[in-house]
Amino acid sequence: MKVAFIGLGVMGYPMAGHLKNAGMQVCVYNRSQEKARQWCEQYGGEMASTPAAAAQDCEVVLVCVGNDDDVRQVVLGDSGALAGMAAGATLVDHTTASASLARELAQLAAQQQINFLDAPVSGGQAGAENGALTVMVGGEPDAYDAVKVVLGRYSKFSKLLGPVGSGQLAKMVNQICIAGIVQGLAEGLNFAIKAGLDGEALIETIAKGAAGSWQMENRYKTMLADEFEFGFAVDWMRKDLGIALEEAESNGAELPVAQLVDSFYAEVQAMGGGRWDTSSLLTRFTRK
User: Fold this and answer.
1) Would you say 17 and 39 are in contact if contact means Cβ atoms under 8 Å apart?
2) What would be the CATH architecture of the domain defined by 169-286?
3) CA distance 37 to 53
4) What share of residues in the chain are helix, strand, coil (percent, to 5)?
5) What is the number of alpha carbons within 13 Å of residue 9 lying toward its C-beta?
6) Is 171 a catalytic residue?
7) For the chain, which residues make up each domain, given as ranges?
8) Which candidate in 35, 159, 171, 194 is catalytic?
9) Rounded CA separation 92/186 (Å)
10) Range list of β-strands (E), the chain
11) Per-residue pLDDT tens for 121-148?
12) DSSP string computed for 46-64
């Protein structure tokens, strides 16, 4: 199978690598050509000077960039991916973006008889590197079935959740839930510190019960050590929460906790923590 991968950031770089290691023909495009050259040196694939060139003759074209505007930049126009794709191919957008963008791209792709799936991922950089991402997919069943083998090379689980846009809506729910969990963990650990409890012993105990979570298991040690220079950046989380809050305005959902946590992340950004991991919510208490 010949595929194109557009966007070689902390997520896309290893994801594309898994495809090449699986024996697929992979052509990559990245706005920074040096990053594309580095990827080719490491994995032995091909690189292209434009998204359209990367997408030529490919059965599947995968995109993983930053936001709605970035997606439009690499997908639309004379040099965009759609310009290089043939009828019957499938465009998969792994970017965490808006549901409205997904629907817009699906309509444009359909005009060229190209399939489209919105398929944001969860699992972070470690999940991408280990091929253990979760993929939330929106689109038509036939299109999903055609690319499941591709998605499976860098994910541990993927599921079609409904029509185009459903994947992005599911990712919004994912981020809403994470925001509340991380805030609860930050408050709990700050309380424990103030109370003079042994943080290690505490987590060893409560993680076995109803309070346990992925965030607790994977972030408590670095939180207690006041280490945040890694992981899923606050800037990215604010982007994602902004998408969810905007969607909530249109569908009538109330998101009081997500809105509050988003404002707390703004405080972390003001402290210079835009690139810190999302667990840095604790610094609002400990670095005042």
Assistant:
1) yes
2) Orthogonal Bundle (1.10)
3) 16
4) 55, 15, 30
5) 14
6) yes
7) 2-163, 169-286
8) 171
9) 35
10) 2-6, 25-29, 46-47, 60-63, 90-93, 115-118, 121-122, 133-137, 155-160
11) 999 999 999 999 999 999 999 999 999 9
12) EE-SSHHHHHTT-SEEEE-
